[in-house]
TrEMBL record:
Coiled-coil region: none
Cellular location(s): Cytoplasm; Nucleus
Boundaries of every Fe2OG dioxygenase domain copy: 230-330
Lineage: Eukaryota, Viridiplantae, Streptophyta, Embryophyta, Tracheophyta
Official protein name in the record: Fe2OG dioxygenase domain-containing protein
GO CC annotations, alphabetized: cytoplasm; nucleus
Keywords associated with the record: Cytoplasm, Iron, Metal-binding, Nucleus, Oxidoreductase, Vitamin C
Organism: Glycine max
Function summary: Involved in the regulation of shoot development and salicylic acid (SA) homeostasis.
Molecular function as annotated in GO: 2-oxoglutarate-dependent dioxygenase activity; L-ascorbic acid binding; metal ion binding
Family according to the record: Belongs to the iron/ascorbate-dependent oxidoreductase family.
Gene: LOC100805175
Region (Disordered): 1-21
InterPro entries linked: DIOX_N, IPNS-like_FE2OG_OXY, IPNS-like_sf, Oxoglu/Fe-dep_dioxygenase_dom, Plant_2OG-oxidoreductases
Length: 382
């Protein structure tokens, strides 16, 4: 079993070298007071967000992502909603999910406890720093802390969530209600993910016929929902403090997510941008909606029909921003492959089979960039 997200975490050793200071994260840096950002965070001009420059590739208008009303999936409008879901996953790789059934109370408690975790003294948060990528809890900073040559302006807490009873005792015990609140939130997002995957499978035209014998066959498509039930879930709480020079750095560099779907809760502070037709578009926050995106594994499973789209996070000088990403996939020891039901003579297999070990081996040898891992799985014959 392996978490298979980006590599890295806190460095060992307490010497007060500048490098060690950066390992403590950006929240700590900002609290020590600064008016300019250290060199360690300054991106080369071509990688900067370039929001103000003349030849900026940032769209002037905010993106109105497709909005999927989850409540309409149950009822007579299901076929139309499945069509909208298919369009969103093909064209944008992203959509906003409203009326999803997770109560405002569960969501606001999750936001609240995330904020209180990051308000804890550094020493308390630092208890969860580790270089062990298999750890059920990792506190850290940047994107890939051991490999990024330039650090990004984010601190994070990553939690493995499934199966919950195994992981719960490892989660932070402070704030006192942390485990309870996050457990409820993770169970509810897991259920929502499964409901969404059932709809997505149907939108791909994969008929879900429950035939006992077939269900037990390995690699069978009916089984993928069953496998996803036992699948991996990782929660990432991202914290982006105000940044005195936001044009020189990023909260997160362009990347795609590894799993089937990510369910993201962003607050009211803008920052998430997705790549669409060569431009960066800001995703306008909708209160209590989930921003849902296709991950690399769904791109592979759909044989390229649905797209895992590059996204990044910009920071700002005035406001801190918090987001909670819930990443879902198959169990870590399962193979991800294009669905046999989407492959025929006209649609040959476009991706090699893959698994978490391949992914980890890949990212541990280099600085994770853009969609390089997914590109490495593409079969050259197509
Ligand atoms: O903070 C955000 O809006 C995006 C976070 C993200 O892309 C991730 O955690 O993978
Ligand atoms: Fe992401």
């Amino acid at each position: 079993m392996s978490p298979a997200m980006v590599v890295g975490s806190g460095e060992k050793g307490e010497s007060d070298t500048p490098g060690n200071q950066y390992q403590k994260g950006v929240k700590q840096l900002v609290e020590n007071g600064l008016h300019t950002i250290p060199k360690k965070y300054i991106l080369p001009p071509s990688d900067r967000p370039a929001t103000n420059s003349e030849n900026s590739n940032v769209a002037k208008q905010n993106l109105q992502l497709p909005i999927i009303d989850f409540s309409e999936l149950i009822g007579p409008r299901r076929p139309q909603v499945l069509q909208s879901l298919a369009n969103a996953c093909e064209r944008y790789g992203f959509f906003q999910l409203v009326n999803h059934g997770i109560s405002d109370d569960v969501i606001s408690s999750m936001r609240d406890v995330s904020g209180r975790f990051f308000d804890l003294p550094f020493e308390e948060r630092a208890k969860h720093m580790t270089t062990d990528m298999h750890a059920p809890v990792r506190y850290g900073t940047s994107f890939s802390q051991t490999k990024d040559s330039v650090f990004c302006w984010r601190d994070f807490l990553k939690l493995l969530c499934h199966p919950l009873p195994d992981f719960l005792p490892h989660w932070p015990a402070s704030p006192l209600d942390f485990r309870k609140v996050v457990a409820t939130y993770s169970e509810e997002t897991k259920y929502l993910f499964l409901m969404l995957m059932e709809a997505i499978q149907e939108s791909l035209g994969i008929k879900v016929e429950v035939k006992k014998q077939e269900e037990e066959t390995e690699g069978n498509d009916n089984n993928i929902l069953k496998d996803l039930e036992d699948g991996s879930q990782m929660m990432v709480v991202n914290f982006y403090p105000p940044c005195p020079e936001p044009d020189l750095t990023l909260g997160m560099p362009p990347h795609s997510d590894y799993g089937f779907l990510t369910l993201l809760l962003q607050d009211q502070v803008e920052g998430l941008q997705i790549q669409f037709q060569g431009q960066w578009l800001t995703v306008k926050p909708i209160n209590n909606a989930f921003v849902v995106n296709v991950g690399d594994h769904l791109e592979i499973y759909s044989n390229g029909k649905y797209k895992s789209v590059l996204h990044r996070v910009i920071v700002n000088a005035m406001k801190k921003r918090t987001s909670v990403a819930s990443l879902h996939s198959l169990p870590f020891n399962c193979t991800v492959r294009p669905s046999p039901k989407l492959i025929d003579e006209a649609n040959p297999k476009r991706y090699a089979d893959t698994n978490f070990d391949t992914f980890l081996a890949y990212v541990s040898t280099r600085e994770p960039k853009r969609k390089e891992f997914l590109d490495s799985r593409k079969l050259s014959s197509t």
